[in-house]
Amino acid sequence: MSSHEKGKGGTFKGFLTYFYGNFVVLILGFIQTPLLTRILATDEYGKAGMFETAVTVIYIFAILGLDQAYIRYYYEKKMEGGGFVSIDRELLLRRCITPALIIVSVLTLVYIIFSKPINIFLFGDSGSDVIVLVTVYTFICVFERFFFLDVRMQQNGKLYSNINIIEKVLSILTIIAAFYLIGDDFRIGLYALAVPWGITTTFLMIRYFYLRKSRVEGHTEQPENESLVPEYRELISYGAPFITVLLMEWALSSCDKLALRTFSTFDELGIYTSAMKIVILLITFKNTFIAYWSPVAMERFEDGINEENKAFFRQAYEMVVMMCIAGAALLILLRKFIVLLLGPSYRSAEAVIPFLTLMPIFAIMFEITVQSIKYAKKGKYLNIASLVALLVNIIGNVLLVPKLGGMGAAVTTGISYMIYFVIGSFFSEKCIKIGYNYRKTAIYALLITLYCAEASFINNVLYDTICGCMVILAVCITDRDKIGKLLWYAKGFIKKK
Protein backbone atom coordinates (compact mmCIF):
# COMPACT_ATOMS: atom_id res chain seq x y z
CA MET A 1 0.00 0.00 0.00
CA SER A 2 1.48 3.32 -1.04
CA SER A 3 2.16 6.01 1.45
CA HIS A 4 0.13 8.33 -0.75
CA GLU A 5 -3.15 6.60 -0.27
CA LYS A 6 -5.74 9.18 0.52
CA GLY A 7 -8.31 8.97 3.22
CA LYS A 8 -8.15 8.82 6.96
CA GLY A 9 -6.06 6.05 8.38
CA GLY A 10 -4.57 5.03 5.01
CA THR A 11 -1.02 4.93 6.34
CA PHE A 12 -2.02 3.09 9.50
CA LYS A 13 -4.00 0.51 7.54
CA GLY A 14 -0.93 -0.01 5.38
CA PHE A 15 1.05 -0.69 8.54
CA LEU A 16 -1.58 -3.17 9.73
CA THR A 17 -1.09 -5.30 6.59
CA TYR A 18 2.50 -5.73 7.78
CA PHE A 19 1.63 -6.11 11.43
CA TYR A 20 -1.00 -8.84 11.26
CA GLY A 21 1.58 -11.34 10.02
CA ASN A 22 4.09 -10.42 12.70
CA PHE A 23 1.32 -10.59 15.30
CA VAL A 24 0.66 -14.21 14.27
CA VAL A 25 4.44 -14.77 14.36
CA LEU A 26 4.43 -13.37 17.88
CA ILE A 27 1.76 -15.86 18.96
CA LEU A 28 3.71 -18.68 17.34
CA GLY A 29 6.79 -17.40 19.14
CA PHE A 30 5.07 -18.16 22.45
CA ILE A 31 5.03 -21.76 21.23
CA GLN A 32 8.56 -21.79 19.81
CA THR A 33 10.44 -20.18 22.70
CA PRO A 34 9.05 -22.41 25.51
CA LEU A 35 9.55 -25.38 23.18
CA LEU A 36 13.25 -24.56 22.89
CA THR A 37 13.76 -23.64 26.55
CA ARG A 38 12.14 -26.87 27.72
CA ILE A 39 14.07 -28.99 25.22
CA LEU A 40 17.46 -27.34 25.80
CA ALA A 41 19.27 -26.89 29.09
CA THR A 42 20.27 -23.29 29.84
CA ASP A 43 23.90 -23.85 28.78
CA GLU A 44 22.88 -25.42 25.46
CA TYR A 45 20.40 -22.60 24.87
CA GLY A 46 23.19 -20.11 25.53
CA LYS A 47 25.36 -21.78 22.89
CA ALA A 48 22.53 -21.60 20.35
CA GLY A 49 22.28 -17.86 21.02
CA MET A 50 25.90 -17.42 19.89
CA PHE A 51 25.11 -18.77 16.41
CA GLU A 52 23.40 -15.59 15.21
CA THR A 53 26.30 -13.61 16.66
CA ALA A 54 28.82 -15.47 14.49
CA VAL A 55 26.74 -15.14 11.33
CA THR A 56 25.94 -11.47 11.92
CA VAL A 57 29.61 -10.49 12.15
CA ILE A 58 30.26 -11.98 8.70
CA TYR A 59 27.04 -10.53 7.32
CA ILE A 60 27.76 -6.96 8.45
CA PHE A 61 31.04 -6.73 6.56
CA ALA A 62 29.65 -8.58 3.55
CA ILE A 63 26.56 -6.45 3.00
CA LEU A 64 28.55 -3.14 2.94
CA GLY A 65 25.38 -1.20 3.69
CA LEU A 66 24.24 -1.85 0.12
CA ASP A 67 20.79 -2.82 1.38
CA GLN A 68 20.45 0.79 2.55
CA ALA A 69 21.61 1.98 -0.88
CA TYR A 70 18.88 -0.16 -2.46
CA ILE A 71 16.27 1.51 -0.23
CA ARG A 72 17.64 5.01 -0.89
CA TYR A 73 17.66 4.79 -4.69
CA TYR A 74 14.67 2.50 -5.28
CA TYR A 75 12.21 5.38 -5.88
CA GLU A 76 14.64 7.54 -7.83
CA LYS A 77 13.08 9.08 -10.95
CA LYS A 78 13.57 11.94 -13.40
CA MET A 79 11.73 13.82 -16.14
CA GLU A 80 12.34 12.44 -19.61
CA GLY A 81 10.30 12.76 -22.78
CA GLY A 82 7.51 14.67 -21.09
CA GLY A 83 7.05 12.23 -18.21
CA PHE A 84 8.72 10.63 -15.20
CA VAL A 85 11.04 7.67 -15.80
CA SER A 86 11.79 5.33 -12.88
CA ILE A 87 15.15 3.83 -12.05
CA ASP A 88 15.99 0.39 -13.49
CA ARG A 89 15.31 -1.55 -10.29
CA GLU A 90 16.55 -4.90 -11.59
CA LEU A 91 19.94 -3.40 -12.43
CA LEU A 92 19.97 -1.65 -9.06
CA LEU A 93 19.40 -4.97 -7.29
CA ARG A 94 22.20 -6.66 -9.26
CA ARG A 95 24.66 -3.88 -8.48
CA CYS A 96 23.78 -3.99 -4.79
CA ILE A 97 23.90 -7.76 -4.29
CA THR A 98 27.00 -8.61 -6.38
CA PRO A 99 29.66 -7.02 -4.11
CA ALA A 100 27.94 -8.52 -1.07
CA LEU A 101 28.13 -12.05 -2.52
CA ILE A 102 31.81 -11.63 -3.42
CA ILE A 103 32.72 -10.42 0.05
CA VAL A 104 30.66 -13.03 1.88
CA SER A 105 32.46 -15.72 -0.15
CA VAL A 106 35.86 -14.42 1.00
CA LEU A 107 34.80 -13.99 4.64
CA THR A 108 33.21 -17.42 4.90
CA LEU A 109 36.40 -18.92 3.46
CA VAL A 110 38.37 -17.22 6.24
CA TYR A 111 35.84 -18.54 8.77
CA ILE A 112 36.19 -22.10 7.42
CA ILE A 113 39.98 -21.94 7.71
CA PHE A 114 39.84 -20.79 11.35
CA SER A 115 36.54 -22.51 12.19
CA LYS A 116 37.83 -24.75 14.98
CA PRO A 117 39.10 -22.05 17.39
CA ILE A 118 36.18 -19.77 16.49
CA ASN A 119 33.58 -22.47 17.14
CA ILE A 120 35.25 -23.56 20.37
CA PHE A 121 35.04 -19.97 21.65
CA LEU A 122 31.47 -19.40 20.52
CA PHE A 123 29.90 -22.79 21.22
CA GLY A 124 32.45 -24.70 23.29
CA ASP A 125 32.22 -27.30 20.52
CA SER A 126 33.01 -27.74 16.83
CA GLY A 127 32.04 -30.04 14.00
CA SER A 128 31.52 -30.17 10.27
CA ASP A 129 27.76 -29.66 10.58
CA VAL A 130 28.29 -26.45 12.59
CA ILE A 131 30.68 -25.14 9.92
CA VAL A 132 28.20 -25.95 7.15
CA LEU A 133 25.30 -24.32 9.02
CA VAL A 134 27.23 -21.09 9.68
CA THR A 135 28.44 -20.92 6.06
CA VAL A 136 25.11 -21.73 4.40
CA TYR A 137 23.11 -19.51 6.74
CA THR A 138 25.43 -16.56 6.01
CA PHE A 139 24.75 -16.83 2.27
CA ILE A 140 21.03 -17.23 2.98
CA CYS A 141 21.13 -13.99 5.01
CA VAL A 142 22.47 -12.04 2.03
CA PHE A 143 19.92 -13.40 -0.46
CA GLU A 144 17.08 -13.08 2.06
CA ARG A 145 18.00 -9.50 2.85
CA PHE A 146 17.74 -8.27 -0.74
CA PHE A 147 14.85 -10.37 -2.05
CA PHE A 148 12.75 -9.79 1.05
CA LEU A 149 13.71 -6.12 0.83
CA ASP A 150 12.29 -6.08 -2.71
CA VAL A 151 8.94 -7.21 -1.28
CA ARG A 152 9.09 -4.39 1.28
CA MET A 153 9.94 -1.77 -1.33
CA GLN A 154 6.93 -2.89 -3.36
CA GLN A 155 4.99 -2.21 -0.12
CA ASN A 156 3.42 -5.66 -0.40
CA GLY A 157 2.39 -6.03 3.23
CA LYS A 158 0.30 -9.16 2.75
CA LEU A 159 3.13 -11.16 1.16
CA TYR A 160 5.53 -9.88 3.80
CA SER A 161 3.19 -11.06 6.55
CA ASN A 162 2.46 -14.45 4.99
CA ILE A 163 6.15 -15.23 4.45
CA ASN A 164 6.88 -14.41 8.09
CA ILE A 165 4.09 -16.72 9.25
CA ILE A 166 5.30 -19.59 7.05
CA GLU A 167 8.89 -19.12 8.25
CA LYS A 168 7.83 -19.36 11.90
CA VAL A 169 5.69 -22.47 11.34
CA LEU A 170 8.61 -24.13 9.53
CA SER A 171 10.88 -23.16 12.42
CA ILE A 172 8.64 -24.89 14.97
CA LEU A 173 8.44 -28.02 12.80
CA THR A 174 12.24 -28.00 12.39
CA ILE A 175 12.75 -27.81 16.17
CA ILE A 176 10.53 -30.84 16.72
CA ALA A 177 12.18 -32.84 13.94
CA ALA A 178 15.72 -31.90 15.05
CA PHE A 179 14.97 -32.86 18.66
CA TYR A 180 13.97 -36.37 17.63
CA LEU A 181 17.08 -36.67 15.46
CA ILE A 182 19.85 -35.16 17.66
CA GLY A 183 18.30 -34.77 21.15
CA ASP A 184 19.18 -32.03 23.65
CA ASP A 185 21.84 -30.24 21.59
CA PHE A 186 22.43 -26.55 20.77
CA ARG A 187 22.44 -27.45 17.06
CA ILE A 188 18.63 -27.56 17.26
CA GLY A 189 18.63 -23.76 17.45
CA LEU A 190 20.96 -23.59 14.44
CA TYR A 191 18.73 -25.78 12.29
CA ALA A 192 15.64 -23.85 13.43
CA LEU A 193 17.14 -20.72 11.85
CA ALA A 194 18.84 -22.08 8.74
CA VAL A 195 16.20 -24.48 7.38
CA PRO A 196 13.10 -22.16 7.43
CA TRP A 197 15.04 -19.17 6.11
CA GLY A 198 16.51 -21.32 3.35
CA ILE A 199 13.06 -22.46 2.21
CA THR A 200 11.37 -19.03 2.30
CA THR A 201 14.35 -17.31 0.64
CA THR A 202 14.31 -19.86 -2.18
CA PHE A 203 10.61 -19.11 -2.71
CA LEU A 204 11.25 -15.34 -2.82
CA MET A 205 14.01 -15.78 -5.40
CA ILE A 206 11.81 -18.00 -7.61
CA ARG A 207 8.98 -15.46 -7.31
CA TYR A 208 11.25 -12.56 -8.23
CA PHE A 209 12.60 -14.18 -11.40
CA TYR A 210 9.15 -15.47 -12.40
CA LEU A 211 7.64 -11.97 -12.15
CA ARG A 212 10.60 -10.55 -14.03
CA LYS A 213 10.08 -13.04 -16.85
CA SER A 214 6.34 -12.28 -16.93
CA ARG A 215 6.97 -8.52 -17.19
CA VAL A 216 9.40 -8.99 -20.07
CA GLU A 217 7.15 -11.38 -22.00
CA GLY A 218 4.00 -9.32 -21.40
CA HIS A 219 5.72 -5.97 -22.00
CA THR A 220 3.98 -4.64 -18.89
CA GLU A 221 7.02 -3.03 -17.32
CA GLN A 222 7.04 0.74 -16.93
CA PRO A 223 9.75 2.82 -18.67
CA GLU A 224 13.02 2.51 -16.77
CA ASN A 225 16.30 4.34 -17.00
CA GLU A 226 19.63 2.56 -16.56
CA SER A 227 21.49 5.86 -16.35
CA LEU A 228 19.74 6.58 -13.04
CA VAL A 229 21.35 3.53 -11.42
CA PRO A 230 24.48 4.65 -9.55
CA GLU A 231 27.78 2.95 -10.32
CA TYR A 232 29.29 0.52 -7.84
CA ARG A 233 31.55 3.20 -6.37
CA GLU A 234 28.64 5.53 -5.57
CA LEU A 235 26.54 2.70 -4.10
CA ILE A 236 29.39 1.53 -1.89
CA SER A 237 30.23 5.12 -0.93
CA TYR A 238 26.63 5.60 0.26
CA GLY A 239 26.39 2.21 1.97
CA ALA A 240 29.82 1.99 3.64
CA PRO A 241 29.00 4.31 6.59
CA PHE A 242 26.19 1.91 7.52
CA ILE A 243 28.82 -0.74 8.32
CA THR A 244 29.51 1.17 11.51
CA VAL A 245 25.78 1.45 12.15
CA LEU A 246 25.31 -2.30 11.68
CA LEU A 247 28.32 -2.96 13.89
CA MET A 248 26.68 -0.84 16.58
CA GLU A 249 23.44 -2.78 16.22
CA TRP A 250 25.41 -6.02 16.36
CA ALA A 251 27.27 -4.76 19.43
CA LEU A 252 24.09 -3.80 21.23
CA SER A 253 22.54 -7.18 20.44
CA SER A 254 25.67 -9.34 20.68
CA CYS A 255 28.40 -7.69 22.78
CA ASP A 256 26.20 -8.34 25.79
CA LYS A 257 26.25 -12.05 24.93
CA LEU A 258 30.00 -11.97 24.29
CA ALA A 259 30.52 -10.26 27.65
CA LEU A 260 28.40 -12.88 29.39
CA ARG A 261 30.34 -15.61 27.56
CA THR A 262 33.64 -14.06 28.70
CA PHE A 263 32.82 -12.93 32.26
CA SER A 264 30.00 -15.30 33.19
CA THR A 265 28.62 -18.77 32.38
CA PHE A 266 26.58 -20.45 29.66
CA ASP A 267 23.75 -20.76 32.22
CA GLU A 268 23.64 -16.98 32.69
CA LEU A 269 23.89 -16.54 28.94
CA GLY A 270 20.95 -18.89 28.42
CA ILE A 271 18.81 -16.99 30.94
CA TYR A 272 19.70 -13.68 29.27
CA THR A 273 18.91 -15.05 25.80
CA SER A 274 15.54 -16.31 27.00
CA ALA A 275 14.77 -12.86 28.44
CA MET A 276 15.59 -11.38 25.05
CA LYS A 277 13.10 -13.79 23.51
CA ILE A 278 10.39 -12.47 25.83
CA VAL A 279 11.11 -8.94 24.63
CA ILE A 280 10.22 -10.30 21.19
CA LEU A 281 6.81 -8.69 21.74
CA LEU A 282 8.38 -5.27 21.19
CA ILE A 283 11.04 -6.50 18.77
CA THR A 284 8.23 -7.85 16.59
CA PHE A 285 6.65 -4.40 16.49
CA LYS A 286 10.08 -2.89 15.78
CA ASN A 287 10.78 -5.21 12.84
CA THR A 288 7.29 -4.66 11.46
CA PHE A 289 7.59 -0.91 11.67
CA ILE A 290 11.04 -0.81 10.06
CA ALA A 291 9.83 -3.07 7.24
CA TYR A 292 6.92 -0.74 6.56
CA TRP A 293 8.40 2.64 7.33
CA SER A 294 11.66 2.71 5.33
CA PRO A 295 10.06 2.59 1.84
CA VAL A 296 7.18 4.86 2.87
CA ALA A 297 9.59 7.50 4.24
CA MET A 298 11.82 7.45 1.15
CA GLU A 299 8.81 7.77 -1.15
CA ARG A 300 7.60 10.76 0.86
CA PHE A 301 10.99 12.48 0.69
CA GLU A 302 11.20 11.91 -3.06
CA ASP A 303 7.89 13.79 -3.42
CA GLY A 304 9.34 16.86 -1.74
CA ILE A 305 10.18 18.14 1.72
CA ASN A 306 7.09 20.30 2.16
CA GLU A 307 5.02 21.16 5.22
CA GLU A 308 2.45 18.45 4.45
CA ASN A 309 5.09 15.72 4.51
CA LYS A 310 6.73 17.19 7.61
CA ALA A 311 3.37 17.02 9.38
CA PHE A 312 3.03 13.42 8.23
CA PHE A 313 6.37 12.53 9.88
CA ARG A 314 5.49 14.37 13.09
CA GLN A 315 2.12 12.62 13.40
CA ALA A 316 3.67 9.21 12.76
CA TYR A 317 6.35 9.89 15.38
CA GLU A 318 3.81 10.93 18.00
CA MET A 319 1.72 7.82 17.41
CA VAL A 320 4.74 5.50 17.55
CA VAL A 321 6.16 7.03 20.76
CA MET A 322 2.81 6.61 22.49
CA MET A 323 2.49 2.96 21.42
CA CYS A 324 6.11 2.14 22.30
CA ILE A 325 6.07 3.51 25.84
CA ALA A 326 2.67 2.00 26.67
CA GLY A 327 3.66 -1.35 25.14
CA ALA A 328 6.97 -1.46 27.02
CA ALA A 329 5.29 -0.68 30.35
CA LEU A 330 2.66 -3.36 29.74
CA LEU A 331 5.28 -5.97 28.88
CA ILE A 332 7.28 -5.17 32.03
CA LEU A 333 4.08 -5.34 34.10
CA LEU A 334 3.15 -8.77 32.73
CA ARG A 335 6.67 -10.24 32.56
CA LYS A 336 6.20 -12.49 35.61
CA PHE A 337 3.34 -14.32 33.93
CA ILE A 338 5.16 -14.61 30.61
CA VAL A 339 8.30 -16.04 32.24
CA LEU A 340 6.20 -18.92 33.63
CA LEU A 341 6.07 -20.30 30.09
CA LEU A 342 9.85 -20.75 29.92
CA GLY A 343 10.23 -23.34 32.66
CA PRO A 344 11.68 -23.37 36.21
CA SER A 345 15.32 -22.90 35.11
CA TYR A 346 14.57 -19.52 33.52
CA ARG A 347 12.68 -17.80 36.36
CA SER A 348 15.47 -15.26 36.98
CA ALA A 349 14.93 -13.89 33.46
CA GLU A 350 12.18 -11.60 34.81
CA ALA A 351 14.79 -9.29 36.38
CA VAL A 352 16.62 -8.98 33.04
CA ILE A 353 13.58 -8.10 30.90
CA PRO A 354 12.81 -4.48 31.99
CA PHE A 355 15.92 -2.71 30.68
CA LEU A 356 15.91 -4.88 27.55
CA THR A 357 12.59 -3.30 26.58
CA LEU A 358 14.39 0.02 26.03
CA MET A 359 16.26 -1.47 23.08
CA PRO A 360 13.35 -1.99 20.65
CA ILE A 361 11.33 1.09 21.66
CA PHE A 362 14.17 3.55 21.10
CA ALA A 363 15.15 1.73 17.92
CA ILE A 364 11.60 2.19 16.59
CA MET A 365 11.52 5.88 17.51
CA PHE A 366 14.88 6.46 15.89
CA GLU A 367 13.72 4.68 12.74
CA ILE A 368 11.48 7.68 12.04
CA THR A 369 14.02 10.40 12.75
CA VAL A 370 16.94 8.61 11.04
CA GLN A 371 15.28 8.80 7.63
CA SER A 372 16.32 12.46 7.36
CA ILE A 373 19.97 11.44 7.68
CA LYS A 374 19.62 8.64 5.16
CA TYR A 375 17.87 10.77 2.57
CA ALA A 376 20.36 13.62 2.98
CA LYS A 377 23.21 11.09 2.47
CA LYS A 378 24.92 12.19 5.68
CA GLY A 379 26.11 8.81 6.89
CA LYS A 380 28.87 10.44 8.94
CA TYR A 381 26.26 11.50 11.50
CA LEU A 382 25.14 7.90 11.93
CA ASN A 383 28.78 6.93 12.41
CA ILE A 384 29.19 9.44 15.22
CA ALA A 385 26.03 8.24 16.98
CA SER A 386 27.04 4.62 16.46
CA LEU A 387 30.57 5.03 17.78
CA VAL A 388 29.47 6.85 20.93
CA ALA A 389 26.78 4.24 21.66
CA LEU A 390 29.23 1.43 20.93
CA LEU A 391 31.81 2.91 23.32
CA VAL A 392 29.19 3.22 26.07
CA ASN A 393 28.07 -0.35 25.40
CA ILE A 394 31.57 -1.81 25.69
CA ILE A 395 32.43 0.13 28.86
CA GLY A 396 29.08 -0.73 30.44
CA ASN A 397 29.41 -4.45 29.73
CA VAL A 398 32.97 -4.59 31.06
CA LEU A 399 31.97 -2.81 34.28
CA LEU A 400 28.53 -4.29 34.96
CA VAL A 401 28.48 -7.86 33.60
CA PRO A 402 31.10 -9.26 36.04
CA LYS A 403 29.06 -7.87 38.96
CA LEU A 404 25.45 -8.15 37.78
CA GLY A 405 25.57 -10.81 35.06
CA GLY A 406 22.62 -10.68 32.68
CA MET A 407 21.06 -7.72 34.47
CA GLY A 408 24.23 -5.69 33.89
CA ALA A 409 24.14 -6.55 30.18
CA ALA A 410 20.48 -5.52 30.00
CA VAL A 411 21.10 -2.14 31.68
CA THR A 412 24.00 -1.46 29.31
CA THR A 413 21.97 -2.40 26.24
CA GLY A 414 19.02 -0.20 27.21
CA ILE A 415 21.12 2.87 28.05
CA SER A 416 23.21 2.49 24.88
CA TYR A 417 20.11 2.57 22.69
CA MET A 418 18.85 5.68 24.47
CA ILE A 419 22.14 7.45 23.78
CA TYR A 420 22.06 6.30 20.16
CA PHE A 421 18.57 7.73 19.75
CA VAL A 422 19.44 11.08 21.35
CA ILE A 423 22.60 11.72 19.31
CA GLY A 424 21.14 10.43 16.04
CA SER A 425 17.94 12.46 16.42
CA PHE A 426 19.94 15.61 17.12
CA PHE A 427 21.81 15.19 13.83
CA SER A 428 18.64 14.29 11.94
CA GLU A 429 17.22 17.74 12.68
CA LYS A 430 20.42 19.28 11.31
CA CYS A 431 19.87 17.44 8.02
CA ILE A 432 16.14 18.10 7.57
CA LYS A 433 14.27 20.02 10.26
CA ILE A 434 10.96 18.24 10.87
CA GLY A 435 10.14 19.58 14.34
CA TYR A 436 9.52 16.42 16.39
CA ASN A 437 8.18 16.81 19.94
CA TYR A 438 11.33 15.76 21.83
CA ARG A 439 10.23 17.40 25.09
CA LYS A 440 7.40 14.93 25.58
CA THR A 441 9.70 12.10 24.45
CA ALA A 442 12.17 13.05 27.20
CA ILE A 443 9.43 12.93 29.86
CA TYR A 444 8.24 9.53 28.65
CA ALA A 445 11.84 8.27 28.53
CA LEU A 446 12.40 9.31 32.15
CA LEU A 447 9.19 7.57 33.29
CA ILE A 448 9.94 4.27 31.54
CA THR A 449 13.59 4.26 32.71
CA LEU A 450 12.58 4.77 36.34
CA TYR A 451 10.05 1.97 35.98
CA CYS A 452 12.75 -0.30 34.51
CA ALA A 453 15.02 0.44 37.49
CA GLU A 454 12.22 -0.28 39.98
CA ALA A 455 11.24 -3.51 38.25
CA SER A 456 14.84 -4.75 37.99
CA PHE A 457 16.23 -3.93 41.44
CA ILE A 458 13.20 -3.86 43.77
CA ASN A 459 11.48 -7.21 44.19
CA ASN A 460 8.06 -5.97 45.25
CA VAL A 461 4.95 -6.97 43.30
CA LEU A 462 2.84 -4.12 44.75
CA TYR A 463 5.34 -1.38 43.83
CA ASP A 464 5.81 -3.01 40.44
CA THR A 465 2.09 -2.97 39.70
CA ILE A 466 1.56 0.61 40.91
CA CYS A 467 4.50 1.98 38.90
CA GLY A 468 3.49 0.13 35.75
CA CYS A 469 -0.11 1.29 35.94
CA MET A 470 1.01 4.89 36.57
CA VAL A 471 3.19 4.92 33.44
CA ILE A 472 0.41 3.46 31.28
CA LEU A 473 -2.16 5.85 32.77
CA ALA A 474 0.12 8.86 32.14
CA VAL A 475 0.46 7.88 28.48
CA CYS A 476 -3.28 7.25 28.09
CA ILE A 477 -4.22 10.62 29.55
CA THR A 478 -1.57 12.62 27.68
CA ASP A 479 -2.22 10.95 24.32
CA ARG A 480 -5.91 10.12 24.68
CA ASP A 481 -6.67 11.69 21.28
CA LYS A 482 -4.17 9.42 19.55
CA ILE A 483 -5.56 6.35 21.31
CA GLY A 484 -9.01 7.27 20.02
CA LYS A 485 -7.69 7.53 16.46
CA LEU A 486 -5.82 4.26 16.84
CA LEU A 487 -8.96 2.42 17.91
CA TRP A 488 -10.96 4.03 15.09
CA TYR A 489 -8.41 2.97 12.47
CA ALA A 490 -8.21 -0.58 13.86
CA LYS A 491 -12.01 -0.91 13.89
CA GLY A 492 -12.21 0.16 10.25
CA PHE A 493 -9.45 -2.27 9.29
CA ILE A 494 -11.17 -5.20 11.04
CA LYS A 495 -14.51 -4.43 9.36
CA LYS A 496 -12.88 -4.46 5.93
CA LYS A 497 -11.16 -7.75 6.65
Describe the structure.
With 497 residues, the chain is mostly helical. It has helices spanning 10-39, 42-63, 66-73, 89-113, 115-123, 128-153, 157-182, 187-218, 232-239, 241-263, 266-278, 280-302, 307-339, 353-356, 358-375, 379-404, 406-431, 438-457, 461-478, 480-496, and strands at 77-80, 83-87, 224-225. It folds into two domains: 31-230, no CATH class; 240-497, no CATH class. The protein has 20 helices and three strands. Strands 1-2-3 form a three-stranded mixed β-sheet, with no helix packed on it. A hairpin with a 2-residue loop joins β1 (77-80) and β2. α1 (10-39) packs antiparallel against α12 (280-302) and α13 runs antiparallel to α19.
Assembly annotation: single chain
Number of beta strands: 3
Overall spatial form: globular
Q: What string, H for helix and E for strand, traces the elements in order?
A: HHHEEHHHHHEHHHHHHHHHHHH
Please compute the radius of gyration using only Cα atoms.
22 Å
Q: Can you tell me the residue ranges where pLDDT is under 50 for at least 5 consecutive residues?
A: 1-9
- Major beta sheet, strand line-up: 1-2-3
Question: Helix proportion of residues, in percent?
Answer: over 70%
Number of domains: 2
How would you state the average pLDDT, rounded? 78
Give the biggest beta sheet. 3 strands, mixed
Q: What percentage of amino acids are in beta strands?
A: under 5%
| Separation of the first and last Cα atoms | 15 Å
The chain-level structural class is mainly alpha
Give the number of helices: 20
